[in-house]
Amino acid sequence: MRRLHAVFFGISVCATACTVGDESEEATSGASVTTIEAGLSGCKGKASSEVPANGRYTITTFGGPGDHQPMSCGGYANGTGWYAASRQRYGCGAKLKIEANGKCAVVTADDYGPDVCVEKAAGMPIIDVSPKVTKHLFGMSGAGWSDRVVVTVEEVAASTPVGPCVAGQPPAPTMTTCNSSTLERDVEEGVCVQAASDAKWYQCRGGEWVARSSATGCATAFGFCNSATLGKDVPARTCVQAASNSVWYQCNGQSWVTPVDTAARSGALGACSSWNPL
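and the corresponding C-alpha cells:
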C-alpha cells in the first residue's frame, strides 16, 4: 500500500545536550501523523483525542526500514520497539495493552497521530503501532487502514513492561521504573534523563537513578535542547515561542516539537516546565 511521508531532519542524542538549532527548523508533531496513504483527502496533521468506549480500533503501522523518523515523545519509529501513537489520547509514556487473535502486546504511547483523515476513511478510531506489534499479533509485517484489522486497546499501569503478554489477563507490573521530576512521569529501566536541576545525566537502574557522564549507550535519552531564541540549552518540557516565526514549541528531550496548547500550557511531554513567550 503506497504511502506519502513527510521528511524531517534526524536528531542525534548528544553527550551533554540535544542541540537542534532554532525551534522552527527541525520541529515535528510526530512520525505517525505524517504517514498518510496516497489518495486520502482532508489531511491537516491533526489527530483525534477521543477514546472509544468499547476500546476497539483499527490497527495500522508506521516506522521501520526506510521510514525512521523521530517520535514526538522521544525515540525513533524504527520498527524494532514496542511503540504506538495516540499520545494525544493517553499521554506520553502511557502503557497500552493491545489484544487480538488470542494474543496480547503492551506498547508505550510515544507519538502523536494518526491524522483524523485516516480515521474518517477507516470509519473508526485507529491505533498506529510499530510493525513489531502486528507481527506478534497477526504474523503481518505491516497494516494499513484499508486492511480493517480490528484490535482492542486498554490503558494499563505505567509500571507494566512492554512486549508480549497473555491475552485475557492483566500484565504483571514491574518495579524497575523511576520517577523523573524533569519529565514529570515514570520512565522504564535503562532510560537516561538529563536532570533539569543540575544538567547532569542519570540512568534508571533497578528503580533508582544512577549518575553517568553522558547519554552514550542509552537506549532512550531525554536531554536538553538548544534554543536559538533564548540563547541557551533548556531542559525537556520547556516551552518557547520562537523568535523566527512566533510559533510555540516544546523540547521533548531530543528535539523541538509542535503543537503546544497555549491555553493549557502543555505539549507532547505534558505540562510545560517553563513558559517563554516573546
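(Above: one complete record from the training split.) Residues 131-138 form the longest helix (8 residues).
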